[in-house]
Amino acid sequence: MTTITPLLLITADPSHPLAHLALRYTRAYLQSATTEGESNNAPLNVFFYGDAAHIANRLRWQSADQVNITKEWQSLAEQYKLPLPVCVSTALSRGVSDTDNSTRHQLDGSNLATGFTLVGLSELAMMMQDNSRLMQF
To answer: Contact, 24 vs 65, CB < 8 A?
Structure first.
């Protein structure tokens, strides 16, 4: 029996309802996988692309009456050992950078939130090679 791995391609800006739907879906999926036993469920992959790169900006301020989507993703990543890959090109073009890329491109500091990693599109391609079901938010 072949297992299908959900692959969530998150492209929505953090203020968009789809970005929050992706977070809720991921939380529910991971809670279900834990409840039912990990051996019964396929792993879950996420990939942040386009405007979703803003989610990985540790300097994004959020008012107290709104969900801080960055902190929520960080919490899920920590609790479930979930990698949070972000497309490096779309992140850099939106002002989100890690230390290595800031040095390489002579940028004035880094602002990548803890738990997120900047990766190339080859990471997404490798995720798509596996038996995965792609869902875009």
So the answer is: no
- Please state, for a pLDDT cut of 90, what percent of the chain lies above it: 77
Terminal CA-to-CA distance of the chain, rounded, Å? 28
Q: Which residues have a catalytic role annotated?
A: 87
Residues 96/111, Cβ–Cβ less than 8 Å: yes
Instruction: Give SS3 for 118.
Output: strand
* 5-136 is classed CATH 3.40.1260.10: yes
What is residue 39's predicted lDDT score, i.e. its pLDDT? 45
Tokens of 17: 């309802």
For 45, phi then psi, to 5°, come to -115, 140
In angstroms, the CA 95 to CA 98 distance is 10
Please state the domain extents for the chain: 5-136
pTM comes to 0.91
